[in-house]
Design goal:
This protein is of the alpha+beta class. It is built from 3 helices and 9 strands; from the N terminus they run αβααββββββββ. The chain is globular, with a radius of gyration of 17 Å. The relative contact order is 0.27.
Length: 154
């Protein structure tokens, strides 16, 4: 621990302070219906209609805060406060890959099928984790993400 602390304290002042925002990545999303089974629950909790949920989700720009949970799972900050919703009380055993979800003050995309407790509002076909490519994850810390609707429930 002391070696790590010494390394951080030595290197920290040497950083150039350059503000690197990363890339801007647009993610097309099919919202609602079978692609977003929790969108109605989100509308009830947030007291909005489906069109408002989609509009507010797409109006925000999101910053990739960190990667975790599974390879390519990016925690995205910048969610409109009107869409804040607690995690599901009971997680699902299987969330399909590409599911766009909300939990707390963040949004995310499940890069591969897995269990999960976030509210699913849509799905994208954009691959987020491709081990044969470099980098292996589409989204990187510091990237900016924008969601673009390509279909929605009425």
């Amino acid at each position: 621990l002391n070696k790590l602390q010494d390394l951080v304290l030595t290197r920290w002042p040497q950083l150039d302070g350059k503000d690197d925002h990363g890339r801007v990545i647009e993610i097309p999303v099919h919202y609602g219906a079978s692609e977003g089974p929790d969108i109605e629950l989100v509308t009830e909790h947030c007291e909005l209609n489906v069109a408002q949920v989609i509009e507010r989700h797409c109006q925000s720009t999101y910053q990739v805060y960190c990667l975790g949970f599974q390879p390519g799972f990016a925690y995205l900050g910048g969610l409109d406060e009107s869409l804040y919703i607690p995690r599901r009380e009971t997680p699902r055993l299987a969330i399909p890959a590409g599911s766009v979800a909300l939990a707390g003050s963040q949004t995310a995309i499940y890069p591969s099928a897995s269990p999960g407790g976030w509210h699913i509002i849509g799905r994208t076909e954009v691959p987020l984790f491709t081990p044969s490519q470099s980098p292996i994850t589409l989204l990187q810390i510091g990237d900016t993400v924008r969601f673009v609707p390509i279909g929605s429930a009425s």
